[in-house]
């Protein structure tokens, strides 16, 4: 079976490597070998062992009837969208690791794949090597999924872990993450939560069966988290994690990306370093969690190649995925219920006048301020109440 | 689509409940409703709402051409085997939660299902509600699976957690587990590791593609674990868990069920109470873990019903599973490498004469004995060396 890889960056080259390293076991599974015939990349690969596979025009791939599977690992919406669309229209199966593309064009590309009786798969777009898309589509199918809460960004999880364990400041851990290759030169997409936002949009689309626009999801990153916050967390036996939260309530789906304070009994509490994990609550299953390498060359390539195997086992058949292009109106984020942890230099009298009897947290080496937990209340109520205190230093949601 | 449930015990009644509770969402997924037409049970259900579905002869189900899916939740090898075989021969799809049946007859029943162009599914037989069979068969397919290590028995994990957290003795926690309904009156299958043994046999069969006989797996339960062992574990920042371990080495598969000392950085460390989790290491994926409710009425029924959904989406098609009846010869368990934690009243001089420079562990309120870690060595070597010490109190493997 002949395949093509579009984009020979980290993931794309990982896909070629995985197909090579596990050639035998993969061939045994699908009954024949997968051969990469083309690699689309505009860079110069003179002298590289893949040189003879390089093409610089995607039409060559689209026009070759031998090609059955196309891997898209270029990233970004364009030109990936144009290329993928043309591959599906040419009757080729596609798998992608590109969350930006899937979040925006997933429903449309799935519909096109269905019309052409091929498959559009994207296991690697969320959680890297962790199986989560296919488990949601074909394992947790007896349940109504009531919650998905994920640590879905390895960069920020590494940074939060490092800040928590080593007591370092945000800027220091960012520099460290960049030096280690865990954060990009421009880390905006990770540290502002944009990456996590796209991933939870995809997961919510999958479980709701409708299009969730990522722009509708209130998103905060980790740039406001300080070494002092970590001291409080530690004193409480808690950790701070960047979470992507999606909940089904009687009013519809409510979704948010933000740093949260987790207690030690939460399954996500012990998910450290660059690892990712996705916690799922089903109405009959109860709690489940999927844990693993959420990024990195080979783990992500492993998920892409697993899609290729699934495609190879289903050539000539579209595996239907319920994700309609109709936009899902998310429920008002202001109505989302939470407890809040607040740090302030206000006096206890003022705090209690606004929030009633609260649970205080004091940390020995942070003087002149106090921390407290509010009761559960909506975002709107918290907003309103917190305006009555003048000296709030920090607010972090509690889970 | 008409279905039948054989055995209306905890899981069987859970299946009927899940089909009822999530009737709408399940019908939406498969395009039609699943209706339970028969329930096979020899007990009297006079006055129960399911009374009119009860049949006491499995032939009624086998002979009814309307029945497409049969659920087997009776447990035990016979008569479940006879019934399931006849259902497959009659062209009906079967899903089971019965690990005893799957461990012994899985390969044969899969082969029969293939001949009859139907499916034999058993997601619920390992890990209860945790998706693990289908992820291994259709998600982690790009990898060579090099290790599966599971906490796959909820009863013993509850007991180990309770002993660890409350400092109780084995007999006390067993009594507590029985009172809470987490352990059966005859707890042998759980506490002696027989249940975990069958589950790791199934998982190893799935990844190796051959029949693993559970009788070949060295199996120790938790009956020898004491409150003193837990004190040592705590002092080391470790926990003791009953693990089912399956590793692929250059000499083949090596499998064992035994209590192990886990360090705090291991993903299974924080899996407490009745929860189960299965850690998987793939050669390109790296580490992954699947966590959730490993037992219980609704979680297990959730997995059975998910199989029914998968079957309903694939009526008229056999989804091939590689599990040949040829017996897999496991590699010599004596060659398995481990570190060992040993408690003894021997003198340090004697210990060092046998094991060299070891790492000692002393616990303040346990006097007159000492604990130590050996270096990594084969089981055979440890056996031989340990015979040279006369006063060993306990040995626990280290992971």
Structural descriptors:
homodimer, 399 residues, alpha/beta, Rossmann fold, Dihydrodipicolinate Reductase, domain 2, Alpha-Beta Plaits, ten-stranded mixed beta sheet, six-stranded parallel beta sheet, 14 helices, 35% helix
Describe this structure in words.
The structure is a homodimer of 399-residue chains. Chain A has three domains: 2-128 and 297-327, Rossmann fold (3-Layer(aba) Sandwich); 137-293, Dihydrodipicolinate Reductase, domain 2 (2-Layer Sandwich), CATH 3.30.360; 333-398, Alpha-Beta Plaits (2-Layer Sandwich), CATH 3.30.70. The longest helix of chain A is centred in the first third of the chain and has 17 residues, at 99-115. The model of chain A has no long low-confidence stretch (mean pLDDT 96). In chain A, helix 1 (10-21) packs across helix 12 (297-312) and helix 5 (99-115) runs parallel beside helix 10. In chain A, the strands form three sheets. In chain A, strands 7, 9, 10, 11, 12, 14, 15, 16, 17 and 18 form a ten-stranded mixed beta sheet that branches. Chain A has 399 residues and is an alpha/beta fold. Chain A contains 14 helices and 18 strands. Chains A and B meet through helix 2, helix 6, strand 12 and helix 12 of A and helix 2, helix 6, strand 12 and helix 12 of B.
